Amino acid sequence: MTSFDPHFVRRDIPLLERVINDHAITYLDSGATSLPPRCVIEAMTRYYELRHANVHRSVFQTASEATAAYEGARDLTARFINAPGGAEEVVFTKNTTESFNLLAKSWGWANLHDGDVVLLSEMEHHANIVPWFQLREERGIEVRFIPVTDEYRLDLSHLDELLNNVKLVSVTAMSNVLGTINPVRELAVAAHGVGALIAIDGAQSIAHGPTDVVDLDIDFLAFSAHKMLGPTGIGVFWTRAELLNEMPPFLGGGGMIADVRLDGYTPANGPTRFEAGTPPIAEAVGLGAAVRYLQGLGMANIDAHEENLTRDALQRLEDQFAGRVRVIGPNNVVNRGAVVSLDVEGVHAHDVAQVLDQFGVCVRPGHHCAKPLMRRFGLSATVRVSYGPYSLAQDTDVLLEALEHAVKMFG
Amino acid sequence: MTSFDPHFVRRDIPLLERVINDHAITYLDSGATSLPPRCVIEAMTRYYELRHANVHRSVFQTASEATAAYEGARDLTARFINAPGGAEEVVFTKNTTESFNLLAKSWGWANLHDGDVVLLSEMEHHANIVPWFQLREERGIEVRFIPVTDEYRLDLSHLDELLNNVKLVSVTAMSNVLGTINPVRELAVAAHGVGALIAIDGAQSIAHGPTDVVDLDIDFLAFSAHKMLGPTGIGVFWTRAELLNEMPPFLGGGGMIADVRLDGYTPANGPTRFEAGTPPIAEAVGLGAAVRYLQGLGMANIDAHEENLTRDALQRLEDQFAGRVRVIGPNNVVNRGAVVSLDVEGVHAHDVAQVLDQFGVCVRPGHHCAKPLMRRFGLSATVRVSYGPYSLAQDTDVLLEALEHAVKMFG
Amino acid sequence: MSNLEDLYREIILDHYRSPRNRGELPSPPAQRVEGFNPLCGDEIVVYLNIEDGVLTDIKLTGQGCSISQASSSMMSSAVKGKSLEQVRDAITSFKQLMTVHASTLQENGQPVEADLRSLGELAALQGVVKFPVRIKCATLAWNTLSQGLDDQLSN
Amino acid sequence: MSNLEDLYREIILDHYRSPRNRGELPSPPAQRVEGFNPLCGDEIVVYLNIEDGVLTDIKLTGQGCSISQASSSMMSSAVKGKSLEQVRDAITSFKQLMTVHASTLQENGQPVEADLRSLGELAALQGVVKFPVRIKCATLAWNTLSQGLDDQLSN
Ligand SMILES: Cc1ncc(COP(=O)(O)O)c(C=O)c1O
Ligand SMILES: Cc1ncc(COP(=O)(O)O)c(C=O)c1O
After folding, report:
1. Residue B373's pLDDT is what?
2. Which CATH architecture best describes the domain C2-154?
3. What's the whole-model pTM score?
């Protein structure tokens, strides 16, 4: 616990040496994508320089090494989330979004029918909304939403009614707009209580604290490597082996089949059934390196560090900007991650972000792919500040100074 | 033209310095995946070190740079294949296989109905078979196959009959097993003549010669970066803008929408409609670098170089192994690429490849994801030798020497 | 911060703070067109009254950043009361202004090619091209207007 | 080439060249099970005659590399005429042999843990673990047999 030091982490991140508009970069957009440490970048470079080959298909040395590296990453990922069935439960997709499409178009297609209900929440990312809307168009399922309270929490007061006819609860572990961390275990108990399954969007939560699918008692999990100090181009879909083996194929092609004849095909078993075509091999290597790096830092340490940053930021925003800047999200750090959305009085998020950029401050303005949530709060956009393990309270200093300028400029 | 020298290319490829089982590597598996030059690897490294950020969503400096790099790669790719509508016609997928799934599950789903025929060929890769079988299960379309002659060519003698009720012809430009290069333009004329569209699997052809979609007069094209000296994790789907804009969404999520409400969503226009979630950004940067590198070498030069290698290999296999090793593919270089499949008398492909590995020779044994083709020729596996721009006739020397050992060992 | 001042000219901030032609028109008879900028969440609704080939009235609602708001406000002033042909010309000129690549701007920030005079105060938006991500903010209203004219034609 | 000789022991090549129990059994009564190795295209069909808890006869057809062919041939010799319990034990022992990680092999190539004696000539396949990609070739027949027993049970 005591060995975690964000200053050491910073030394590992090449991008933090970047200068923007004559200022050292202040990267506060880890919620959109995180900055990979050198060891992740180098793992991929070394892969391409030493052992790049197509996996699963050849017997030669580099191909065996590539396969071992690819499957090794699957194994590391399985351990990282404590998958009870190990690597056999981990499917590599291209991102969280594909993982949800896989869930909806394979499991959902096979198991959901007219009148069945999928229960989402109003704070979901589009990745966990649109695939269900698509299924609704094709299958006549109902998509229902757990409301969000004025305190930016899930409103579970009518959960029993909401669960009526529900076959799947699919919610985010942590909102990418509000920072709210949802009571996943409680929801899992409730879902299972009515015979429903539960899927969790781990895109935000995965890099910010420990994830243990057994402990959470969930059935499906989706996340992306690029939000956990890993590369772009790879995501993860996890489910229990029993469920995985019952899921019909999704994308068809090479690698996912046991046999193809002119009159039909037989799908393969295990995760490869869902990995059609040449998979993201170098990206898996990068993901594996990211997992190892995060484990080295200690997920509990990251959690504690980010909680401190968030507490500090919330406090100082209140002290310095009360009445001018509103935090769209819980105002304390209880069940709350290091994502802080701001509504700046009278200034559009886009303009705030533009001014911040002049100070080298990277934040994200917009709807954050959560339009239903934005509508819920009558907003069209927020300025989102989000922290990572390499973030410092000094980043908040720069942010607040730049924010003063923005407010003055448009005031 | 005269400036192309494979020895110079070799200096750019770090993996060619690899030593395997005390032998310098002899990489003859470019048909499975190609070896990226240093500039491709470095472009991705630099991206992660200097400008990694999520695209399309933020206004800060590195995000604009990342977006420009990502969209720049789209532009380079469009020029590389001479897309008439430019970058707006280029969709980034994860590989060729996803591109075909996109074609089948979006365009096919919207346009093909009971009784409509998709005409493939017996030499297709599973990537261009299984998605159609999946559509057949759901839509009752008919999937028909152009037969392959004993000379390993498409049998077009009954093309008129085969085209009956055909709405889409979908064939490979170059077989990944036989090396056969198909008469794409002729097929395009025939398809259009009956009002059908034509899709081309460019996975093999893309790195081996010029590709001009206007000249070929085709409607859809799919290929993967990793087969053209680029990275894993990214593929391309091209179609004409008119067709693209009529295609319904496929994967749903962030980035592909114009709006999401609790009661529905509106998809975005242009390529982004098909790019749900965080795209393969670093991979696009790598693909862009690969395109530039290939253009620097000159696609016509690569074509000529590989033709020489193939001619030489076919000749020497005949001279040295006649009666013991059979080439499964055309025995001359007319309309033939640098993929040479071997059937070694009395020795299983897997065992041949294993022995070859002891000499550092990397070839691929197996069905090459073309099981219908293997069945057509009564084979369960071949040993596939495939060349790239960095290949030399000396690679064939080593191959033939190792092949002697394999034949003796199991003789 | 010179770049920033180039982007946020005083006249832009003025249109942002006091947008012109804000509101709705009864529809029908007015034509109603919606525009989205999916990337940043900007939304706009344009109401058009077209009579005898003339854009007799235009009103706007929606929300967005200063650039998109100012651009739509300035657009409405520029095209109101104009013939459809003039409106189309204005759209073309404005889009040209937005596609002049930043590198072809002269040192003093003047576009080399686009005909600035015909644009009037809209020329103040030229600083946007130095911020490629913002170009879509500036063009949203124009694309929506253009869409409205196309719809009109096809009805 | 010492590794290679470890893989291709003489007895393996012998079984490859002269496979035992090759052919089909009339089915029914024999049980017919198919196995694929999707990665390399190996295919196997196993025919089982099971009477009173004893595997009275076994035949195999299919195609594959020397390792998969030799392994299936050796398997057929090892399990033919054995009680189902003995067959299951053989399957377990063989799978154990195949999961002994290469690094736990002693210098002289002997697995430390698996009980080699119980495996008889099958022990010759231990060299396969040094070639992880080939393990699936060696286990294909065994997995197919195992599947056959399971199917039997559930019928
Ligand atoms: C002809 C052909 N089509 C499709 C593919 C599939 O490409 P990918 O695995 O990159 O999806 C390949 C490569 O394996 C191929 O050779
Ligand atoms: C909560 C949440 N879900 C899903 C996603 C989608 O992830 P990706 O874009 O990697 O598919 C994101 C990130 O944008 C997110 O924050």
Report:
1. 96
2. Alpha-Beta Complex (3.90)
3. 0.93
